[in-house]
Design a protein that fits this description.
By secondary structure, the protein is of the alpha/beta class. The chain has helices spanning 43-52, 54-59, 116-129, 149-159, 166-174, 217-226, 242-249, 253-265, 268-300, and strands at residues 29-35, 62-66, 75-78, 86-87, 103-104. Strands 2-1-3-5-4 form a 5-stranded mixed beta sheet. Helix 4 packs across helix 5 (166-174) and helix 8 (253-265) packs antiparallel against helix 9. It comes from Candolleomyces eurysporus. GO terms for molecular function: metalloendopeptidase activity; zinc ion binding. One of its GO terms (biological process) is proteolysis.
Length: 301
């Protein structure tokens, strides 16, 4: 679980489908990454980050280039042990004065070998860096989960060092994003790398959400559909394709045809806009479904 303490302002609205931090060019976007003082980490810690982020590069047409002078990088990483693990979201990082860090890993350790916990936290924070928000704060969380707020607040007060105040727990765990703050989002994905671990007593449904250490199918699909491989560019993984991304996201009908057309034309802006339009239509259909069902029931009566 990430103890995320940095400001994480959303960077989008429904009217702006380009909510991800770094918009890819026709081929790819190279994002510079570096390690900064006072705790730039050991070579072992740095190598762990460099290895794990390759997973995001398989699914998003982005490249992370690690540069020697971390002070000049767009993403600047520190390893402050008592400062938790966190990242600024998307292009907010570009507003942070250099050489201040834009990402921190409080529990990526200098011991050899990458643990599953380390893999999960690195993927999670780089998810934030390319625009992903917390899954457990999705506007659609209420469809599946109702949090037991007193239990959640007490847990973070008891387990975090220093203890979290109620306001911090609400900001990082309990509060959901408004629908005007985010553009592309699905039904809450319990397997997303952006979903926090939750024991069963955290919610009234009694659902246990185990720690996620790898990208979910939807994490991968949304990465491709917002940072597509176009015009000869291809993932190192042959299974990463437009068809598989659309299948995983559940895109069908006219929207699927339109997205495929934009992809063929090499227009990533058009593709992203069509995908956002589809998510908006899906949400509108879900919102209208209860009213339609009620009207049908009344008519039958």
């Amino acid at each position: 679980m990430s103890n995320e303490t940095a400001p994480q302002q959303p960077v989008s609205t429904d009217e702006n489908p380009e909510w991800y931090s770094y918009c890819c060019s026709e081929l790819s976007k190279t994002i510079t990454v570096g390690f900064v003082n006072p705790t730039p980490g050991t070579p072992v810690q740095q190598a762990k980050v460099q290895e794990v982020v390759k997973e995001w590069e398989k699914h998003a047409n982005l490249k992370f280039r690690f540069i020697p002078n971390g002070n000049d990088a767009e993403i600047r990483i520190s390893f402050q042990l008592l400062n938790g693990s966190w990242s600024y979201i998307g292009n907010i990082a570009l507003q942070i004065a250099k050489p201040n860090p834009t990402m921190n890993y409080g529990w990526v350790h200098p011991t050899p070998g990458i643990t599953e916990e380390e893999r999960g936290v690195i993927l999670h924070e780089f998810g934030h860096a390319i625009g992903y928000l917390h899954e457990h704060q999705s506007p659609r969380r209420g469809e599946k989960l109702t949090l037991n707020e007193p239990v959640v607040i007490e847990y973070y007060k008891r387990t975090q060092n220093p203890p979290w105040e109620e306001a911090k727990t609400r900001a990082n765990v309990i509060n959901v994003y408004s629908r005007g703050e985010v553009s592309n989002f699905s039904a809450t994905d319990f397997t997303s790398i952006m979903m926090y671990y939750m024991p069963a007593n955290f919610n009234l449904q009694g659902i246990t959400i185990r720690p996620n250490r790898s990208l979910s199918a939807l994490d991968k699909a949304y990465a491709f559909l917002n940072y597509p491989f176009l015009r000869g560019a291809a993932s190192v993984d042959p299974n990463v394709t437009l068809v598989n991304a659309l299948n995983a996201a559940g895109v069908t009908g006219t929207a699927r045809t339109n997205i495929a057309a934009e992809y063929t034309e090499g227009d990533w802006r058009g593709l992203r806009a069509e995908f956002t339009r589809w998510t908006l239509n899906q949400r509108a259909a879900l919102a209208s479904a209860p009213a339609e069902a009620e009207a049908e029931a009344a008519a039958e009566a």
